[in-house]
Amino acid sequence: MSTAVRTHLYAAVEDTAAHLYVWALKDIPQDLRDALASAAGRETSVPGQRVLSTILKNVEVADSERNLVCQDTGIAVYSCRVGEGFPLHPARIYQALKAGTGRATVEHPLRSNAVHTLTRENTGPNTGHRLPIVHWEFVPDWDGLDVKCVPKGSGSENMSFLKMCVPADGVKGIKQFVLESIVGAGGKPCPPGIVGVGIGGSADYAMHLAKEAIARPVGTRNPDPLVAALEGELYELLNETGVGPMGLGGDVTVLSVHVEHADTHMTLNPVAVNYQCWAARRASAHVAADGTVTYERDA
Ligand code: SF4
Q1: Ligand 1: does its nearest atom lie under 6 Å from the Cβ of 279?
Q2: Pocket test for ligand 1, best of 51, 156, 275 (most atoms within 8 A of CB)
Q3: The three-state (H, E, C) secondary structure of 50-100, written as one string
Q4: What is the pLDDT at residue 299?
Q5: How confident is the model at residue 298 (pLDDT cuts 50, 70, 90)?
Q6: Residue 247 CA, ligand 1 centroid: distance in Å
Q7: Computed from CA positions of residues 185, 186, 188, 193, in that sequence, does the dihedral angle turn out positive or negative?
Q8: pLDDT, tens only, 188-204
Q9: Rounded CA gap, 202 and 66, in Å?
Q10: What is the largest distance, in Å, between two alpha-carbon atoms of the chain?
Q11: Closest atom of ligand 1 relative to the 155 alpha carbon
C-alpha cells in the first residue's frame, strides 16, 4: 500500500473519530428519545414526572442550541470491527482514533476528563495512557472498518459491579445480584437508563459483555430466547423497586435491561452489571477501504 493511501485512510479514521465523539454527545438516538418519551407517559410519581419532563426539555434544548445533552463528555470508548483486508493497520487506526478524540475535544471545545490515575493531573484532551479505550474485533474476508463511539459518563460508570457467583447460586443468584446492584446505586447513575448485564465467560469478559449490552439500541432483545426471557424478567423486577427517575422514587427505574452471555467454566458463574445513564449516547460509522465514510447510528 502506498504512503498516500495510508495517509488518506489515517485522515479518514481521524475525522471519523472526531465526528462520532461530538455527534454522540449532542444528538441522542431516536430509540432512546422514544423510550424517554414513553417513560414520561407512564410515570405516575410527581417527582418522577418532573425529572422526566426536565430530561425531555434538556434534549430539546440540546437540539435547538446544537449543544451537548450532558456536560460530562465521559471517556471516549470505541468498538472497532476491522476487516482483514482493511488497508490500515490497527496500530495506526488506534493512533487516528486518539488524534480524532483529541482534535474534537480541542476544536469544539469539549470538557477534558482525562487524568493520571495516581497524580490526578490532566493527561491530554480526553486522551492519555490507554485513553481512549478501544475494543477490537477482526473480521475475515472483508476490507471495511466499522467504528462505534460510546462516550461513558462517570456517574453511570462508577456504578459498575462484578460478582463471582458460584454455580449453586444459579439464575436466582444472578437476578439477586442485579437487583442489589441497581437498588444500591439509587440515583447515582442518573436513572432511568439501560442496565447492561454480562454473564458467563471470566471476570473480565463478563464486564466486557455488560458493556457490550449497554451499547445496544434500547429495548432490543438477545437472540437466545432463554437470555431474552431473563432480560424481560429483570426489566419487570427492576421497575418494581421504586427507585424511580434520578432515585427520587417512581415507576420507571430502568428503560431497558440488556443481557449478553458467554459459556463459562463449570465451576464459574460470573455476573457483571454496567449502568448506562439516561444520556445513553452512541454513534457509528463505516469506513470503506477507499476511505469513504458513511455515518450510521448503529454500524
Ligand atoms: S451519568 Fe450520564 S447523565 Fe449523569 S452526569 Fe454522567 S453523563 Fe450526564
Answers
A1: yes
A2: 156
A3: HHHHHHHHHHHHHHHHCCCCCCCCCECEEEEEEECCCCCCHHHHHHHHHHH
A4: 78
A5: confident
A6: 14
A7: positive
A8: 999 999 999 999 999 99
A9: 42
A10: 63
A11: 1
Quote the ligand 1 centre to 277 CA distance (angstroms).
Answer: 6
Dig out the grid coordinates for 154 from the structure.
462517570
Mean pLDDT of 95-120: 97
- Model-level pTM greater than 0.85? yes
Interatomic CA distance for residues 189 and 182, integer angstroms:
9
Atom 4 (ligand 1): residue with closest C-alpha?
A: 190
What is the predicted pLDDT for the residue at 1? Answer: 66
Q: How far is the CA of 153 from the centre of ligand 1 (A)?
A: 5
Q: Which three cell numbers stand for residue 81?
A: 470491527
Q: HSE on the CB side for 170, CA within 13 Å? A: 2
Of 25, 55, 70, 126, best ligand 1 pocket probe by most atoms within 8 Å of the beta carbon: 70
List b or e across 11-36, with b for residues whose CB sees 16 or more CB atoms inside 10 angstroms.
Answer: ebbbbbbbbbbbbbbbbbbebbbebb
DSSP type of residue 148? E
Phi, psi dihedrals of residue 175, rounded to the nearest 5°: -65, -45
CB distance 105 to 93 below 8 Å: no
User: How many CB atoms within 10 Å of residue 141?
Assistant: 7
Q: How confident is the model at residue 2 (pLDDT cuts 50, 70, 90)?
A: confident
